Amino acid sequence: MRFYLDHAATTPLRPEAREAWLTAAEVVGNAASTHGAGQDARRLLEDARETIAEALGCDPIEVVLTSGGTESINTALHGMWTSRAADADAVVLPDGEHHATMDTVMALAAAGALVRPVALTALGRIEPAAFADALPGAALATALVANNEVGTLNDARALSAAAAAAGVPLHLDAVAALGHVPLSFRELRSVAAAGTGLVAMSIAGHKIGAPVGVGALVVARTARMAPLLHGGAQQRGLRPGTQDVPGAAALAAALMAARSEFDVENARLTGLRDRLVDGIRTAVPAARLLGDPVDRLPGNAHILFPGAVGESLLFLLDVAGVAASTGSACQAGVAEPSHVVMAMGGSERDARSVLRFTLGRTSTDADVDAVLGAIADAYARASGARSAGRS
Ligand SMILES: Cc1ncc(COP(=O)(O)O)c(C=O)c1O
């Protein structure tokens, strides 16, 4: 048996999304073509865009379809920087952001941007006051709605209000939050001078059961954003190229399905996660939940196993049929210490001793039981691995 507890990496395709995807794939025609076939494709695309806009609380024209979270983030940050660089040179980058954001900002730094970091709290949160302190005069700011590793939720509304007050354009990375946190672009926006405050928000379809390869960037009508890609005039010129009609239809279907079960499913995941965390603590008394114990993604259990090597734990659990994650990036197949745990004040040793279990739509009690049945032995052996490695 296999037990999948890595839904934050990617979650299984929803049947509704699969059906919408396959049905739309049968439609022949480029949505930019003026003939009847093209117009059929166009209608499907624009219906999907309307549904996506409704789910994300924005206008259809503000939905820019992309290939996923990384592309959305790159498009937003490069585009905002290019359109603002003549006026200001600082980019506000909180610690503990996803690599798609950190590495994009590093690319901007190579092109002359000055990076203004914002420290995380010990629970992994961006403190709105600290964020506000970093904003004055900045070219742009970015922030996670929910931290994808430790699961802590940020007060996105407060961050957006701070950006509006400072007259700085803000991008929100809502990839990990999607499906688990109410996300209305309109409601998150504070009244701001045109082109400032919240202007862009990134999501990825595969985190909620749409196929891998489709995502969206919400771009406010008033945003100043230069295109990253160049070509046709599709999607306000911000993402030129033939549009992915099946991907859009699947994303719309997944968003609708996620919305219809939002409350019930998040309550169910919270219950499963709490049982998982309590059970791990009983099996491994030294284990500690990281991140905010309450204000966190419902399906996220991010656990520090003191003295154990996270990679070894991951391997031993995999042998027992359990798929989890260290949550952090890999370099040549070797996990790096978690930059998020270190930004929360953890040591490098701690940052190598964490595992992230994430639950989703297909998770059941059997998944929790599988972890609880394997974790004590895996911990004993993975702690031994570290002692042996050091002697
Ligand atoms: C918070 C966050 N941002 C961005 C990304 C990148 O998204 P994608 O894998 O769709 O490119 C991820 C993916 O894990 C994520 O969790």
From TrEMBL:
<dbReference type="GO" id="GO:0046872">
    <property type="term" value="F:metal ion binding"/>
</dbReference>
<dbReference type="InterPro" id="IPR015422">
    <property type="entry name" value="PyrdxlP-dep_Trfase_small"/>
</dbReference>
<keyword id="KW-0408">Iron</keyword>
<protein>
    <submittedName>
        <fullName>Cysteine desulfurase</fullName>
    </submittedName>
</protein>
<feature type="domain" description="Aminotransferase class V">
    <location>
        <begin position="4"/>
        <end position="371"/>
    </location>
</feature>
<keyword id="KW-0479">Metal-binding</keyword>
<dbReference type="InterPro" id="IPR015421">
    <property type="entry name" value="PyrdxlP-dep_Trfase_major"/>
</dbReference>
<keyword id="KW-0808">Transferase</keyword>
<dbReference type="GO" id="GO:0031071">
    <property type="term" value="F:cysteine desulfurase activity"/>
</dbReference>
<comment type="similarity">
    <text>Belongs to the class-V pyridoxal-phosphate-dependent aminotransferase family. NifS/IscS subfamily.</text>
</comment>
<dbReference type="InterPro" id="IPR016454">
    <property type="entry name" value="Cysteine_dSase"/>
</dbReference>
<keyword id="KW-0663">Pyridoxal phosphate</keyword>
<dbReference type="InterPro" id="IPR000192">
    <property type="entry name" value="Aminotrans_V_dom"/>
</dbReference>
<dbReference type="InterPro" id="IPR015424">
    <property type="entry name" value="PyrdxlP-dep_Trfase"/>
</dbReference>
<keyword id="KW-0411">Iron-sulfur</keyword>
<dbReference type="Pfam" id="PF00266">
    <property type="entry name" value="Aminotran_5"/>
</dbReference>
<dbReference type="GO" id="GO:0051536">
    <property type="term" value="F:iron-sulfur cluster binding"/>
</dbReference>
